[in-house]
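Structure (tokenized):
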């Protein structure tokens, strides 16, 4: 009598295997798109140096971009459920490509403001559709790993794109716009050709965003996500300012320390995403939020680049823990035919944080670095407490 023993999956199979081919097409498009994300990290420099705008005018341009971004997530969520995930994602990328070039060739302030608002409206329109696609394509058990791998691909592409963008900017800013536009076109084409439409048929009782807003668990989770986003958004708002003005680091020193974030994510994320995916979502998310909050609170005591590197390492560990979990929670809470709208509400929390983080962080930093960083750490702890309170309801879903 012969017996067979199940073979243990290989390392690569355990980390990257078992996910459907359309998911990897989505991953590849996301990676290429992030690889070409060169404009936004240099927007402030472009507006002031290449277009000669004052700091006030540049701030206004960034503000209207934020206003467009706030509207985009709700619009994108509705479109993903009504016209489909694939059409919303591909259409959003095509619009992004066209508007990116329009902004690159805009020279007057009115034209720049219109282009910036339109870019904010369409640039992230793919996110709710992408999140809904993963939920449609991937089993609940594998969703945390899938969302974690998407997060990994975004960071892998972005780290290379920003580096290349800095080099290209020296040869002319217009190159950044062309590369960004081309990467958006590639993303649109790849999704349209290789990813099937997965939108479930809408039920007659579907009530649009009214259903989402009546879901108390989702509203509570959105507030938790807002807290998480407010904490993380400090990396792009007040952390660079505090490093320069308080710790007196040069841009080179700050960039070197921040490179740790990308390196750790690229190396560690794929190694732990499958293990984290098997943990209880609410408890794992709470742990990640606590670690992130601790890392930012430690920034209050930073006096040199080595100290900053330590705090970045700590909050990056928290970021890695939380990376794949929110998308899985949203997918668990959402009815299949409303996944786009649920993802849109979740995305709104990040757009709102991008607007609120500098508005709140600036006055807090003026009161003192400890006031800012202890407050940021406190927000992380409050968010962790919030997700633990929601844990039983999330597990019931």
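Design, position by position:
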């Amino acid at each position: 009598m012969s017996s067979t023993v199940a073979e243990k999956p290989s390392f690569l199979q355990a980390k990257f295997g078992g996910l459907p081919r359309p998911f990897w097409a989505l991953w590849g498009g996301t990676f290429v798109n992030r690889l070409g994300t060169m404009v936004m990290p240099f927007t402030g420099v472009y507006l002031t140096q290449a277009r000669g705008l004052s700091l006030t005018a540049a701030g206004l341009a960034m503000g209207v971009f934020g206003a467009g971004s706030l509207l985009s997530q709700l619009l994108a969520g509705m479109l993903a459920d009504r016209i489909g995930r694939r059409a919303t994602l591909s259409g959003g990328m095509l619009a992004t490509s066209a508007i990116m070039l329009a902004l690159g060739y805009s020279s007057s302030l009115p034209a720049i403001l219109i282009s910036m608002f339109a870019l904010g409206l369409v640039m992230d329109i793919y996110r709710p559709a992408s999140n809904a696609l993963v939920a449609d394509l991937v089993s609940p058990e594998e969703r945390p790993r899938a969302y974690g791998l998407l997060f990994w691909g975004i960071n892998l592409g972005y780290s290379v794109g920003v580096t290349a963008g800095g080099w290209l900017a020296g040869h002319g800013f217009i190159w950044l716009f062309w590369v960004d536009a081309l990467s958006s076109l590639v993303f649109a084409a790849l999704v349209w050709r290789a990813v099937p439409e997965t939108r479930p048929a809408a039920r007659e009782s579907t009530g649009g965003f009214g259903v989402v807003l009546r879901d108390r668990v989702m509203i509570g989770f959105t507030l938790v996500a807002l807290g998480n986003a407010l904490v993380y958004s400090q990396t792009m708002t007040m952390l660079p300012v505090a490093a320069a003005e308080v710790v007196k680091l040069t841009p080179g020193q700050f960039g070197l320390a921040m490179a740790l974030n990308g390196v750790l994510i690229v190396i560690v994320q794929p190694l732990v995403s499958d293990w984290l995916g098997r943990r209880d979502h609410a408890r794992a998310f709470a742990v990640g939020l606590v670690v992130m909050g601790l890392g930012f609170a430690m920034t209050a005591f930073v006096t040199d680049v080595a100290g900053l590197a330590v705090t970045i390492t700590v909050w990056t560990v928290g970021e890695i823990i939380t990376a794949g979990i929110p998308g899985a929670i949203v997918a668990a809470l959402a009815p299949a035919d409303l996944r786009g709208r649920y993802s849109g509400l979740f995305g709104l929390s990040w757009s709102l944080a991008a607007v609120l983080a500098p508005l709140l962080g600036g006055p807090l930093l003026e009161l003192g670095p400890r006031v800012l960083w202890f407050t940021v750490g406190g927000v992380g702890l409050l968010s962790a407490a919030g997700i633990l309170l929601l844990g039983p309801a999330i597990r019931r879903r």
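Reviewer-requested clarification: Residues 1-6 have pLDDT under 50 and may be disordered. The CA atoms of residues 145 and 274 lie 5 Å apart.
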